[in-house]
Amino acid sequence: MNKPSTSLPERRRPTPPPLGPLLAGARVRGVADGFAWLGLAAVLIDDRGETLHVNDDAAELMGDLLYVADGRLRARERGADRAIAEAIAAALADGGAGHVRLAATGGELWLRIAPMPVDPDDPYQLLRVVALLSRARDGRAVRH
Known about the structure:
Layout: H1 19-38, E1 41-46, E2 51-54, H2 56-62, E3 66-69, E4 72-75, H3 78-94, E5 98-104, E6 107-115, E7 127-134
C-alpha cells in the first residue's frame, strides 16, 4: 500500500517584471528633472527618434515654431523640419551633434541636438538624444 505524500505541492512564485525598464524610465525622469533644475529647455528623445519628454521650458519656447506629432519633434517650416530630423538621425547613427536655427517674428530659436552617452551593456537605455532649445546660439538659458 502506498502512503500518501506528506509534502506540499511546490508553489511557483510569479516572476517579477524585470527592473531594467523601470530603472530606465526613472533615469529619464531624473535627467529631465536635472535639465529643469538647471533652467534648460530640453526635449528628450529615444533610440527611434521619438520624443520621451518635453519639459515646461521647452514647451514654452516651442510656441508656434515647433510641435510634437506622431511622437516626433517637428518644425512648422519645411526646411527646419528636415534639418531637425537629419540632426536627430545623425546623433543616433554616429553620435554627431548639430545646431538648427529657426527664425520667427519674435526672434531666433536655436536647437542644439546632441547624443547622450550610451552604455552598451544596458539594453534598456531609453534616452539617446537631447534637443536643447534656446534663444541664444550658444545654448544659454535665456528667458523671454
